[in-house]
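User: I'm putting together a teaching handout on how multi-component assemblies are represented. Below are the sequence lines for each component of a complex, exactly as they appear in our records. Could you produce the 3D structure of the whole assembly as structure tokens, so the students can see both representations side by side? Please keep the chain order the same as the input.
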Amino acid sequence: MSTLKITGLTAEVAGKEILKGIDLELNSGEVHAIMGPNGAGKSTLSAVIMGKPGYTVTGGSVTLDGVDMLALPTWQRATAGLHLVMQYPTEVPGVHVDQVLAEALSARGRDTKEMSARIAVEAGRINFDASLVSRAMNVDLSGGEKKRNETLQLGMLEPKFAILDELDSGLDIDALRDCARRVEAATHENNLGVLAITHYVRLLEELKPDVVHILAAGRIVKTGGPELADILERDGYAAFV
Amino acid sequence: MNITPTLPSTEEEIWRYSRIAELDLSAFAIATARTETIGLDAVRVNDSLAGIAMNGTPDVFAELNAENAQTISLRIPKGVAIDGVIEIIHHIEADGIVAYPRLVIDAEPESQVTVVERFVSNDSVKSLVVPVLEIRSAASANVNYVGVNQLGLRTWMIAHQQTLGLRDSNTRVNTIALGGDYARVRAEVRLVESGANAQQLALYFASGTQMHDFRTLQRHEAPRTYSDLLFKGAVGGSARSVYTGLIRIEKNAGKSEAFQTNRNLTLGAGAWAESVPNLEIETNEVKCSHASTVGSIDEEQRFYLESRGIAPEVAERLVVFGFFKDVLDRLPSNVDTTSLEAEIAEKLRREEAAQ
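Assistant: Of course. Below is the structure of the complete assembly, with chains in the same order as your input.
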């Protein structure tokens, strides 16, 4: 079993403090939802965990099984077992999905011989058109196709922990169900731990959270069970911000 | 009799930033290129069709070409689709020569053809090639052209491409520039009947002390005409590139659409790229856009790949190669790009080694 541990994490963007002390402990197989209003720092948290340029960590730590992730470059955080599913997956013209997967698997010392067969299986599980993997990454894809593509990569790379940054934004209800079910399945099949950052409750109808955290103004203001999401659905964020 | 004509100067806007001042035309003797052809016998005509797409003579080089041209004229008969790809390869083999090849493609109504024209010399050849391309696409004709500059590092090129699109025709002019010392292409499309469509695509990659220079014109002269231009180039070492492009929509060309995108990647601190897009629109009810960028590798793209577990140097190589692959992926599907990909990869390897 693995543990992703965030302790006292503070971070700023362009000199403005966005994260004001985040504490969170996530174990393999668990699903933690982080919910919060716009501007709470949800996307900043995912960016900081993965080391996106433009974000400055000013204090605290992020460790994976005791290894300091913040000391590692982005690519080594990924090979150590963290995977970020992006809210707005970047278009990379001329770089094909299968090319990226081959490099990503090689970087993890894994075999790429069975890659095509595995892609076909993964694509089938989420109703993704497998021929799109020999096209440029995220270029000319619909919102739903982009999120399916992100989910396909998650399935192929088998990380220890996935950070889903608003997996539910910009896609239709069918694509949302396909992607959410695939992630949920990975929590059982691969013991994947999930940090699901979301604005809405609908993602959590398929991806069952064990723990729900409410993030507001850069702090986790409340932590509870799945029932917390239902309260938010009924009453909104007003009581917590 | 050989009168040396007056050459333009960089005072003229269309020659601004160019290396025209370095050219001494008297240093080059008029000669012919050695030209190989594949698959054109069925459509080659003996009479010269020169002039069918020209709009006057735009400059002294077009004039010199008209006087001295070594012309290949092709006529694609009405309704005929040519299977396979016609290839024309011009070898510039001697030192100190100037060659004036001209390729004229007359595509009759509803015909279809793909032509690849390559310009080749080795690195020791200090010569000049002044090619002209003319394409006339008649009603509903489909013409695909790919021009490839694989000239050596001491050869100059001053090229002119002129197309004329009639009703509902599709004309695609693709240019790949990897070679040459100073290589310039003046690339003009005219859309003169409604429904005419022109696409211009270019990939250029200058390294060392090379310079690539493009001047484009998308001229809409009839209603409901369409043009789309995508030029992507990279400069490494102390290389330079210039792109200046104009979309011109005439008064009678309402409901037309025109797009122009120029992306430049600077790979070295000593490299320099200039991009100047322009619009001249004489009527309302048109859809036009232009975009232009000059910069180093896209940080978001690099981060995306790194977040998949790919090391920075590999991610950078993928993004840079993808920048070019994006253009190659858009070439006509019957054109084999394997050797071009290999040549670009080799050029990138040398660029990396030089840093």
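A couple of points students might notice: The first helix of chain A runs from residue 42 to 50. The helical segments of chain A are 42-50, 74-80, 97-107, 115-125, 143-157, 173-189, 227-235.
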